[in-house]
Amino acid sequence: MLKKETPSRWIYDYFSPYEVHKHALKQTLYHGHSEYQEIVIAETECFGRCLILDNEFQSAERDEFIYHESLVQPALILHPKPEKVAIIGGGEGAAIREVLRHRTVTKAVMVDLDEKVVECAKKYLPSFHNGCFSDERAKLLFEDGRKFLEETDETFDVIIIDITCPIEEGPAYKLFTKEFYDIVKQKLTPQGALSVQASTVSHTALATYTVISRTLKEVFTNVSPSVAHIPFFAMLWGFCLASNGLDPNQINKDEIDRRISERVDGELRFYDGITHQALFNLPKYVRKALKEQTHINRDNKPLMEQYPGRA
Fold first, then answer.
1. Candidate list 162, 247, 254, 272, residue with the active-site label
2. Superfamily assignment of 10-60 in CATH?
3. Distance in angstroms (rounded) separating the CA atoms of residues 140 and 134
4. Whether 162 is catalytic
5. Strands 19-33, 38-44: parallel, antiparallel or unpaired by DSSP?
6. What strands lie across the sheet with 156-162, from one edge to the other?
7. What fold, for 64-292?
8. What confidence tens digit (pLDDT) does each residue in 50-78 have?
9. 8-state DSSP, 133
């Protein structure tokens, strides 16, 4: 039996000053800087192509479907008839890809601050966007997502927040505050839903996840945190679903499967009725931490993670 050579090149994914994961690197496909951040697209041995922004790993080819279906599908399936959807962030194109799988959707507006990320995704990450940027229902805007929601006259059935974590000096920290969620609420239709990527649910780093959930509860009647294991991150990852009427615990798995069958083009690889139940049934330690969190994130004192991987 031939012995495989040990990889000589590695890339590091930092989770704290005391924890780092590393991935064997096949090649770097792109490395550059935009006006806002450092952009790297690399190909790893185990997880295929991945997007890295400011040295923070975003998603990987092999398992991005877990992350993006967890973020997008519950909100759209719970809504009785989602037609207009806004995605804030989502530069890889995978979130809008999942939105456009829904036959009821007539318009999907994707607002990303960094046009360079989308340009790179178009060229180097075709399996992520799957050509969705050319869909006639898709509208791409390159501007500040908060400013867009403040100024638009449109309302949406679902709003997806797929942005980087609130890293110190990063571009996204003011999109996790109560004031921002107040703006979002005003731009949702009466049965509208908000879905937020809400950072890690590691036992050693629960602050961001629990603060986001607690802050959303200041604005919305129903807030339902969820978790999914993302192999590329090697840990649970958090999401929050918020609305004033939709409750993910009040729909059974058979109804979810029926809606998927009637509404969604193609076969989902992760999300179905059984997975839905798992997403919203949190481990005990997570439920305890959510219950104990009292901090409300505000514009004048925003939560900012000190990411050790940032140069």
1. 162
2. Spermidine synthase, tetramerisation domain (2.30.140.10)
3. 10
4. yes
5. antiparallel
6. 138-141, 107-111, 84-89, 156-162, 188-200, 235-243, 222-230
7. Rossmann fold (3.40.50)
8. 999 988 899 999 999 999 999 999 999 99
9. G
